[in-house]
Fold Origin recognition complex subunit 3.
Amino acid sequence: MSIQEGDLEYAKRLLDDDEFLATHVRERLSQSREWVVRLLRVLKYISAGKATSSEFAQLYLDAIANGVDVKGEHAEFVETVKQMQPTDAISYLTQVLDAIKEGDWTLGLNSWADEREEAAAFFTDTLANMKDLQAKAEDEGHVLRSTYSRQSKVLRTTVIAQKVQLSQDTAALTDKDKAFTDLIDRLVAHLQEGLYCERAEDMLFSEIWLYDSRTPYKDVFIPRPRAVVERALSRPHDYLGCSCCKGGETQMAPTLPTTAILYQLYLETGSLVNVADLWSAYVAIVGGENEEGLDERPALVLFYRGLAELRAMGFVKPSRKKADHIAKLAWKGL
């Protein structure tokens, strides 16, 4: 950032002077907390009432990535405020004032009425004036509206040379409508002036307190269990870390977990697996002919347990075609 601004000396001191760097890191961390508070306050303005249909969490994520600028990125918010009906505008101002005076304990946001007395006074006066205009309009049986309201737009029909032309025009506004329009204009101007927050990335040393790497979260919230299970069964040593599970590249070691051995044999079969053939192949690997071979009965127990685990993981199921066969449900890599 310093280089982009042309301040090479500042950037050089950050690289060469550790004490200077540490001082600025502490300052930036303090500024980061202020930035978070400012961002939450801005979002409370935007999310109040019916000003936006987006969820607060989505607004927060967008604001972190893109910042908040009601003159640019969030221009739709301003248009929504302009077109508010009196009841919607009153509801919006009421919620804004509640946020300023009470804060939001769910966000850890304290009241900022004492810090922004002018803003609180402005919203209070605007709300009182709108309520007064609304009450007077209701007494007169008049529907209060602004020049931006859709109700202020009327269609005019003009017949020229036996052709009907439709055009949109603005209905005449009463004095109270003009006063309400003036309040809306002042409100919009106030919001445009005060609602701004830069992107998190624009702050120096934001990498220290902002973690936005998606890969670890993606692995948790959008996991790939099948790939992990296949790797664990194909290369159990990667997870167990024991020497007995390394095995050779040309043959399977009898010390591998039973489920891993059965999975390797499973990969060599077709869509239907003969359980007797699978047992014969398994016992040939772990049976008594090996130095540390198992007797038939313990081997059979482990064999059935391994098959049950493969079934629980969704690799096999009983076959309806042949009672002594199991059906293969998954192919590696597919």
Notes: The mean pLDDT is 81.
